[in-house]
Structure formats: C-alpha cells, structure tokens
Amino acid sequence: MKRFFVVAMLVVGMKYAMSQEQIPSISVSFANTPVKEALGEIEDKTGYKFFYLEEWLEKIRVTGNYQNTPVNVVLDNIFKDTVLNYFIMDSQQIFLMQNNQIYDSLPDDFFGAENQLSDDDFPNYDQLQDIGPLFLESDDSGTRGLQVVKIGKENRNSGRRTFTLSGRALNSRNGQPIPDLAIIVEGKDIGTSTNANGNYSLELPIGENVITTRGLGIQESRTKIILYNDGSYNFQLNESVEALDEVVVQGNRDRNVETAITGVTLIEVEKIKNIPLVLGERDILKAAITLPGITTAGEGASGYNVRGGRTDQNLILLDNGVIYNPSHFFGIFSAINPFTTGSAEIYKGNVPAEFGGRLSSVFDIESKDANTEKFSGEASIGPVTSNVVLETPIIKDKSALMVGGRATYSDWILGALDDEQLSNSTASFFDVLAKYNHTINENNEIKATGYYSRDEFSITSDSIFNYSNRLVSLGWDHKFSEKTTGSLILSNSEYQFGIEFDGESNDDFDLGYKNNETEFKYKMKYLPGGKHKFDFGLSSKLYVVNPGNIDPLGLDSDVTALTIPKERGLESAVFISDSYEVNDKLLIDLGLRYSFYAALGAGDQRIYQENAPKNSGTLVETQTFDENEFIETYGGPEVRFSARYFLAPDFSIKASLNNAYQYIHTLSNNTTVSPTDTWKLSDLNIEPQEAYQASLGLYKNFEGNKYELSLEGYYKKQKNLLDYKVGAQLLLNEAIETEVLQGDGKAYGVEFLIKKNEGKLNGWLGYTYSRSFVKLDSEFSEERVNNGEFFPSNFDKPHDISLVANYKFTRRFSASANFVYQTGRPVTFPIGSFSFNNSEFVFYSDRNKFRIPDYYRLDLSFNMEGNHKIKKFAHSFWSFSIYNVLGRNNPYSVFFVTEDGDIKAYQSSIFAIPVPTITYNFKF
User: Fold this and answer.
1) What is the pLDDT of residues 28-59, one digit of tens each?
2) What per-residue confidence (pLDDT) applies to 534?
3) End-to-end CA distance of the chain
C-alpha cells in the first residue's frame, strides 16, 4: 500500500511563530557545560520552555560568553555543530528537532492553482522549485524492519537537492576496514565501492535512500538512510559464515570502465596467492610484471621498466615512503613483504597530480592496518625463506600494532644454479616492518610505519657486498567537515650499499655509498557536492646524496682514503586536481602540478668551456657555493589531463596527456640494474629529465564484469636522459659530468588485456607491443653514440606475452599456470679485432645492435587449502609449484672473453632447470 508521510513538521494556518522583534536578549556564559544545563539556565532567565528527547543531548557540551545577545543567536551557536534544529513559538515554547526542521509556511503555489488538497496534488520532492517542507513518496512494503538512520542537519536556506554521504565500512568483529565492498542505492542508478582503507563516498538525492552492501565474506546488509545534508555513516558489517559454491567479488566491478585515469592497475595480495612464482614466494611486484606495460630487463634483474622507461623513473612508495631498491637476492624476490601488504595501485599512464619526481610510473603500495579486535597472525615456511606477521590490539577497537619479518636461508639454492660464479656464492637477506594504527576519534586517525631491509652477498671469495633500505613514515588523517578531509604525511627514506674487499694483494678496501630523502606532504580532499571533487596540497622533499667514500681495509692496504663531497637538493611542489562529471557520459580529471627544484650548497661546481665537450681539458674554473646557497634551479608546470566517455554503460573510451620532471638520476653502465648503481642530483652540469606522454584506450566489460577487455596505446617523448660514455668510470668520480651524456628518448606501444574474473577458470592474458629508443647526439664525436641516431634501449623488448590461469576444482583445491614470452633484449657484440702496439683489441658493434635469444617460461602450481571449519586455530594453505617447468635455459646475460687470442662468447643463466617448491602458509 502506498502512503505519504511528512519528514518535516508543518505549522500552517496559525500565527504561532515568533517574529524576530519579539525575541528577547540574555547574558549567559558557558564553559564546557552540558547542553541540558545550558538550556535550563536559558529557561530560568527567559521563561521559555524547551521540549526535546534527553538522549539527543547526552554528549553535547557548550562553551561561550554571550552579553545581551538574542536568544536565537545563542541557540544558533549552541547547535551549530550538531544535527539539532529549533523552532520558537510565541507561546514561549521552543521545540528541538533532530535533523529536520519545523516550517511555519509553504512555498507559493505549493498546492496548485485550485488550492485543493488531494493525493494527486502532492508533488515529488525533486519537482519543488523552492525550498520548503520535505515530502517523500514512500512504498515501505519492502523496507519494513530496516534500520533507519538520519544523516545531516536540514537547512532551509540551502538550494541543493543532492548531498554527499561518506564514511567507512568496518568489520564489526575486529574493526578492520572492508575494501572492495559494493555499496548500491536501491531503485537508483547510484553505487560505488570502498577503497583499500574501507572509505566510500556517494552523491545522493535528499530524503530517503535504501542502501545495500555486498562483499566477499561479508553478510549483505540493507539500511534506510534519510539524508538532510552532507554527512557520514560507518557501516558495521558482520562476516558471512554461509558456505558458497562460488564467490563473486563485486567491489570495483566497473572500475576499469568508469574511472577517467588511464593506465592504472590495482593489485591485491589475497588475489595473487595462487600465481606460481619462483621459490614459492607470493610477490606483489612480480605479479605486476605479468600485466601489460610492466617488465624487467631479464630474469634476476632488479628494478622495473614501465612503458619504455628506465628503472630509475619509477616512484616506489611503501606507506608514502620511498624505496630505492625494491629487490632481494639478485632481483629474484621483491623487498616488499607480501604478508604485511594490503594492495598496490600502479599508475603507468596518467599519474595523479599529488605524485611527482618520476617520469614513468608510481607504485603506491599500502601495508594493511593491524587488527584492533584480537591477536592474529600469518606465517609461511618455504625452501628459501620463512615469513611471519603478528598483529595485536593496543587499545581494543582503537589501536593496534603489526610486526612482520622475513628472512632467508638461501645458500643451498645458489649451489644448484647454472652459473659457476653464482654456484660458489653466498647470499642472505631479511626485512622487517612495523605499523601502528590508531583511531583517535571519528575525525582523526594516525598511522606510523617503520621498515628496514638488508641484503648481503659474496660472488667471489674476496668481496662482500651489502645494501639496505630504511624508511619511516607518519600519517595523520583529519576530517574537517563532511566535505573536507586532510592528510599530513612525514617520511624519511635511506638507501645505502657497501663493498668490502679483502684479497691477497695490498689493495683491500671498504667502500660505502648512501642517499637520504625527507619529505613533507599535506593534501586535502574537498567534495563540494554536485559534479566536482577536488584534491589539492603541497609537498617538499630534501635530498642528501653521499656519492661514496673508500677507506683502506687493514694496516697493510695501499688504498688511499677518498670521500666524494655530498650533494643536496630541495624539490617542492603545489598541486590541484578536479574530477569533473560533465554529464552522465563524460568525466574529466584535470590536474596541475608545479614543481620547483634547487641544487643546494655547500659544494663546488666545475665550469666548462661553452660549445666544447666536457673533459679535463675544457675545464675553466671551479665555483664554490656556501651552505644552502642555490647552485642552480629548475622547475615548471606538469599537466595531468585524462577523460572518460561512455560509449555504452559497460564500454568506455579514455584519453590522457601528461608531462613530468625528474631531478634525480641513476648512474649505471651495467646492462641491468645493479645494487651498486648510484644516484646523481641535477646541478649546473646535469639537467633534469623530462617526459611527455599521450595515451588512448578502449575498455569493455562483458556479462556483468565476468570478462574485462582493454586496449590502450601510448606515445612517450623524453629529454635529458642520463647515459654514459664508452668506458666510463662512474663510481667515486668527483667529475662525474665528464663521464655521462644526456640525450633524447622515445617510446610507444599497444597494450592488450583480457581478464576473466569469475567461474572455476579465471585469470588473464596480456600482450604488449612496445619499443623504446635513445638518441645521444652531439657535434663532438666523444659525446656521440651510434652516429647520433636513435638506437634501442637496454630493455627494448618489442613483444611481451603473459598468461595467468587459475582453475578451482573445489573450494579447497586449485591449480594455476603462468606462461611468459618476451623478445630478447638488446646487447652489444664484438664484431672484430685489431692490433695496436703489439696488443690485440676488440672492435664492438654499434651499441645495442644485436639481441640475446628470446625468453619464455612456463610455471605450474597446485594449491590446497585447509578445511573451512569456523572453530579452529589456524587456516592453512599448501602450494606445490614448479618454476620453469620446461627447463628453458633463458640467458640472463651474454659476455665475451679473449682466450688464446680468440674471442669467445658465454651465456649466463639464472634458472636453467625446473625448480620445484613446497610452501606451507597458515593464518590465525
């Protein structure tokens, strides 16, 4: 049965409302006074009588000093930050209302021309031209018994008909945020999903909205929300204990089609645990390279190449702190503990305006929040590593601490590798992460993360190498109002490496290198309602690079101590972006970032002759700069533009255009990234890198997002790429600018991805065609490579195919396969020899003219979960995997040795045989 009900109370046809002139003035003072006492004092001084429900006032306290102030002004201040309204009658009665208001008049022509009152004369609330009492048409036959929640405070002076509802979805058992929860408004084409922190935001029409929530392992809920203004509501949801044949994840179901940003990928740790990876390690960064547009220079290589970019052009963040070397164990493992990680969002196309300082991509990795409800943990035992994570509440339902550690016992595996040097090597690593999260109140939350990792290895018996990452980050999230939130972030990161050489000669040494950066960032989010969503803020980062020092090791060493002076630089930026929904089909995301960089003293800078190559013979003078003096400045605007247009509800086209500056560079003349690569700041002689990228893509979902299909192309131009001269000495070189070159780059490609999200068989197939080129041209021959023409970069691999497939036999048993094919990367080969002064020398081809053999690999795994009983100590998970099932002898590198006057080529491989692994995981 249909009926009408009135949300706002009406007083019509009577003259009860008191006029402004009749309201008396009073003098009162309150100091953190309970509001009930404050109202009682007003009653004593005025003769007014208040009417309300006492539970409305339980938590409200007031502070203020009022001298000869009208009563209505006092009440306005008292109830300003509450959801309470009031209405003053001339019979000296004051009625309080929660959320809604009392009206003493209706808009003109409210009942129509005939002024007759009937059911047909009631307009729908969205047809009212003026703001007046809110009528809602309701059919409650399907909503009886639902929890009713009133949100916001009605304001009769507001002209808005839609408001923003935001909040979090939390697990009622442990207080953990629920990511990827689908939030749907019944009967309206409105919905969203929660992010990794459980946060959501919806634009809803005023009045009644019935909201349904659905998520994996979470009981479905329905809530009737009556919305009067912007407000927040946190869903407290129960876990689902119902046994299901199949679970369909609905969170983010249309994210790939709906968002405006191109080239963005979200990876969740729980969803990659079945992918067979080397030595049984669940690895979020290794899973990333199975996706189009992301690759590495080779098996066992550190770093990642994204859309034709270099490894130093990726900004890898862990809880907002930078990790410079994200790899362990010769690049075989990533340095990110999978058990402490929640998700990673990878931006390889249009990067949000808040991020800067890198040209190719951002890996924004977030660790999960600790369990505030009860003690819990997760652990694994594998053939090479063991891992354990423990979570414990500090203050129940408010704060908790997570500590995770991982270590290796890997020396035995090196002996089985098909490489003589590696088989005689030793290696070990560990990493540890601690995170504290504390909810102070509904408006304030703080999080603190500390991380440290260290690798130590010896490839030869006389040298020990080590490198480490350390970061500390602190974040404070504050909710200013229903529309405005802010985040303050402080972080410090450090990367260092060392080499200890102890040989038979008298040249033993201890070498060290370190760089450090400290960043401050403040960002805000403003939701004005309607079609706009603003993000804005500022950031500043201080770099301190110690390019290296070498000291004699032992009293007999002939090595002379040397320390290269440190470098300092300050990179700052302001940014703003607006996500603007032009109409139902067109969404525009426009961002602007202005970055400014200053190379700072104290320090010396060498000045060289103009129009001459940089070498010791063209040095003119050396300038000395004082502490914090600007040596050189760079900067400029960075535009981040992307747009999405719906061709159909499940089919969109997206385009983006962006540019970026990078003020820090790696120095390396290795084919693949090495732990001994150093970093160099821009200064008088080395300019910052620049990049411009355009992309265009089509995105389509089929059968309710059962299948996803995307096709995206890009074109990228780069300037001032840092490369090296032939035979360059990069380590411990004070005049490094004489050994490097800066040139142009270009990259282009097409990325294809088809993904099946549901069913017993699921997974994805990705294909990338991409090219990456470098040009090092100069009027001087010593600064020109390959005659100044474009040549392939070290990581140019045109064809890249990845297939990941999972088949679920039952809820407990599944099998997975991972197949990879890549074109062999470029190398430089010797093509002849010549004699000079009775010595033989090798003559090499143009740089990167040849290629090593193509790479392909097949991995298989069988996965077995423990039983799904609710009451048991821990949930277990076994993984039996074989890495490189085909035993493919994929080359890691190709090198040449002169033996008895002949040049011989050798190929080095990491895993030339199948590598079986058994890993046991348990979670409690």
Assistant:
1) 888 888 888 888 888 888 888 888 888 888 78
2) 93
3) 50
pLDDT at 191: 82
139-253 architecture in CATH?
Sandwich (2.60)
Q: What is the pLDDT of residues 625-635, one digit of tens each?
A: 999 999 999 99
- Sorted by sequence, the CB contacts under 8 Å of residue 775 that are 6+ apart come out as 743, 744, 745, 788, 789, 790, 791
Give the CA distances from residue 73 to residues 39, 82, 101, 663, in Å, rounded to whole numbers and listed in that order.
Answer: 14, 15, 17, 56
User: Taking Cα atoms as reference points, which of 924, 812, 811, 819 lies closest to residue 879?
Assistant: 812
CA distance to 283, 313, 644, per residue, from 696 (Å): 30, 22, 10
Phi, psi of 329 (to 5 degrees): 55, 60
Domain boundaries defined on the chain: 17-103, 139-253, 264-923
pLDDT one-digit tens code per residue, 571-630: 999 999 999 989 989 999 999 999 999 999 999 999 999 889 998 889 999 999 999 999
Half-sphere exposure of 822 (CA within 13 A, CB side): 28
DSSP string for 227-242: ESSSEE--EEEPBP--
Question: What is the band of 673 on the pLDDT scale with cuts at 50, 70, 90?
Answer: very low
CATH superfamily of 264-923: TonB-dependent receptor, beta-barrel domain (2.40.170.20)
- Residue in the structure block whose two tokens are 């800078």: 605
Say what the pLDDT of residue 911 is.
73
Quickly state the pLDDT bin for 871 (edges 50, 70, 90): low
CATH number for 17-103 (one of 3.55.50.30, 3.30.310.10, 3.90.1150.10, 3.40.640.10): it is 3.55.50.30
Rg (CA), the chain: 33
**DSSP per-residue string spanning 259-275:** -S-SSEEEEEGGGGTTS
Contact indicator for 408, 430 with CB cutoff of 8 Å: yes
Query: Is 524 exposed, middle or buried, given 0-12, 13-18 or 19+ CB atoms closer than 10 A?
Result: middle
- Bond before 602 cis per omega within 30 degrees: yes
Q: Which helix (H) or strand (E) holds 421?
A: helix 420-423
Rounded percentage of the chain residues whose pLDDT exceeds 90 = 32
Q: Percent helix, strand and coil across the chain, each rounded to 5?
A: 10, 55, 35
